[in-house]
Amino acid sequence: MPDWLLPLLVPAAAALAAGLLVAAFLLARRRRGGVGEALAMLAGRLEALAATQERLAAATADRLRAQERLIADRLDEAAARTQAQAARIHERLAVIDSARANIEALGAQVGTLERILGDKQARGAFGEVQLRELVEDRLPPGGFAWQHVLSNGTRCDCLIRLPHPPGPIVVDSKFPLEAWNALRAAAEAERPAAARRFAADVRRHVEAIAAKYVLPGETAEGALMFVPSEAICAALHAEHPALVAEAARRGVWIVSPNTMWAVLTTMRGLMRDLRLKAEAHRIRVEVDRLMEELGRLDRRVAALRGHFAQMQQDVAEIETTSRKIARRGQAIQLVELPEDAPPPARAAG
């Protein structure tokens, strides 16, 4: 029962009970003949009933006002919650609109990508762009060449310049995707034929790479077939392992962007080791030249030491002669000769 219904039922029940009492009292007094007393008593009862009804009406009004205030507060709270929920719903709708816009943009990009992959020249350019980013990120500038022309007149997408062995390695980025798209779009009954067509196209591409890009004495004994999709490369290895093994026997290794990254990292380490060996050889040559110069310096210092020793000996002999000359001069000064005396004989030495 609602809380507001009880205050309304209480006065009605009280009035009904009072009426029943008055009716019973009148019946009793009528039997006894005391109508006046009954009327007086009835008037008193009615006055008391009126007062009680007034009090009940006042209490009912208070209860109704309290219920109205309570209902108003609850309505305000409900309105506030509704507004907050509406605000959250608007925020979520904004997020959903943004996500929908992103999905539409992504769908447009996917459509553009499908058009690119559907066109053979655009697909080749797309694979070459991926390959270019990988190669230029991992290898030094002098370690590769784009659109290099081999001795047989064939222009390759990329030539990685490794020393012999193994020699320069050619990377081809023009993977055939028509058969793959047909295989993906084929119905269940048409999938075996589509799979055979896909394997045949890949086999022809492997044969072309082996014939054009594997040149004994000029390139390495193998070449790389770059597949610009991890899903296609995984499908090749999982569903056509015999084809992958046949390509390896022909010297064509199938690589995806991730495996190409690992291969380029290994090649980068090999090139760095070769550069270190070349620099070590240059250092060895310079050290040998330095040792030759040190030997030449030792010989010249020894010659200078000999010249210095000879100079010391000559100076000592000169000093000895000077001392002898000084003694002879003193002796000559001490000799007193007569005026007619003959000159003394010249001493030898």
TrEMBL record:
Transmembrane segment boundaries: 6-28
Membrane recorded as keyword: yes
Recorded coiled-coil stretches: 280-307
Gene Ontology terms describing biological process: DNA recombination
Highest taxon of the lineage: Bacteria
Keywords linked to the UniProt accession: Coiled coil, DNA recombination, Membrane, Transmembrane, Transmembrane helix
UniProt keyword Cell membrane present: no
InterPro entries: DNA_recombination_RmuC
Protein family: Belongs to the RmuC family.
Function according to Swiss-Prot or TrEMBL: Involved in DNA recombination.
Name of the molecule in the record: DNA recombination protein RmuC homolog
Organism of origin: Caldovatus sediminis
